[in-house]
Amino acid sequence: MPLVKNGRIVTDLFVHVSDGDELPGDGAVLISAARFLADPETLSRRAGKLGVIWPNNRAVDDLVPYLDRLAAVALVFPSFRDGRAYSQARLLRERHGYDGELRATGQVLRDQFVFMSRAGFDAFEVKKDADAGAFAETMKRYSVFYQPTGDGRVTALNRRMQLRHSESAGQ
User: Fold this and answer.
1) Residue 139: what pLDDT?
2) Which strand ranges, in their side-by-side order, compose the sheet holding 14-16?
3) Could you say which DSSP state residue 131 is in?
4) Strand, helix or coil at 159?
5) β 3-5/8-10 pair status
6) What is this structure's pTM?
7) Residue 74 has what DSSP assignment?
8) 3-state SS of 20-49?
9) Terminus of the chain with fewer CB atoms < 10 Å: N or C?
10) Which residue has the higher pLDDT, 154 or 161?
11) Is residue 116 a contact partner of residue 104, using CB atoms and an 8 Å limit?
12) CB-hemisphere CA count at 13 Å for 42?
């Protein structure tokens, strides 16, 4: 499954480890929320990066105490019609200041890439190679937005205000 991160197709460094499988001694792993919450202290001490796959029907407040220990949080889109992961992403980025990898997984469709990015996602597990290529192109297409959101980009209004300020300071 291709991974798109920061607008480029990249090698996924994280290995998905099922609940019954043994964790490798080191290396980056993605584990389920249930497995993580069963023993977060021990899992946080293992060598290698740790990521958690967080379901969209669970409150992110349960994850907040551990955010500083997580290199990645994968939020699940079980259906393209289910947008709860958008809200989770914005909460993690804007309210809780999470600055690690925020990954969209599940039904990640090409016509939702821009919206997911604007919500704060910076990595996307896609089903098809063609979607990965389309994502990279889509992200280049849009450079200015009107609404402030979780991706940290400066809005069109803020750009105008900065330009006016610099022009008035130069006079």
Assistant:
1) 66
2) 8-10, 3-5, 123-125, 101-106, 72-77, 50-54, 28-32, 14-16
3) H
4) helix
5) antiparallel
6) 0.82
7) E
8) CCCCCCCCEEEEEHHHHHHCHHHHHHCCCC
9) C
10) 161
11) yes
12) 7
